[in-house]
Amino acid sequence: MIVARRRVWRTVQAALAIAVIALAARSLIRNWGLFRAQEVHWTVAPQWLLGSLALVWLSYTLLVEAWRRVVVAMRQQLAWLPAARICMLANLGKYIPGKVWSVAGAAFLAQQAGVAPAVAVAAAIVLQALALASGVVLVAVVAPSAFAGVGSWLVTATVIAGAGALAGVVVLCWPPALRRLQRLLPGSVPELPAVPVGAMAAAFAANLVAWAAYGLAFQWLARGLAPDAALPWAQAAAVFTLSYLVGLVAVFAPAGVGPRESVFVLVLQGPLGLKLAVALAVASRVLLTITELGAAVPFLVTRTGARG
To answer: What does the pLDDT look like over 249-262, one tens digit per residue?
Structure first.
């Protein structure tokens, strides 16, 4: 039964991602003439680009501390450097098809840092749950203004998904619901401890702030490459967050390559034009790759922070 459910869920995920790509491809084909007629004139402003990079790295710092406090709230000891090592290295697991590697990597690295096995697994799940739940909630809040020209179905879908994501976070804090979740997991998974509500709420708020900062970083990226691009913060935050989440759940796409860029095209081609939307999707991909590798490389070349 559990295996069947997982197969159904993976099929749904793949179908949604394929649908997004198909919609973007259809739009690209229909507007190919317009795409070729447009010209993107880059006007590079280094200060905005450097500010965008710095803002993303500051967001990483906030997220690491928020997650570390969740682990500490479950009666474990974990310093900031080991926590940063866990988060940054586990994040690279998304470049491997399947997406399970990020969770498995976080659990393994947390145990290496001295965290109890059950807490390590719970913390790894929390790391992903917080990102998903807070991201969908942010999109649901800004969707009415950000996606006004895309369609009411997207607003409705994000609001429903936001409610479901919040429910998932509540499960991790409520022992009766957590016990039911435990029955769906393999027997080899240790009994998961409930996360203290206060620590989870604080981490959830930190994740919301981080998503908002990512949106501002994307807005600065656009300003640093195409100053004439009219990209309000709400729209920048919504498209960046939604595209990231779509890429996160697309299990067959390493790092969400394809589905993520398709969301950029679908949402931004109206206000910015098709060619600039595609160009900013590529630019955002480059920005994320630089920030993720830049944050992980120091921990890849040294064992510093393995234990706290």
So the answer is: 665 555 556 677 77
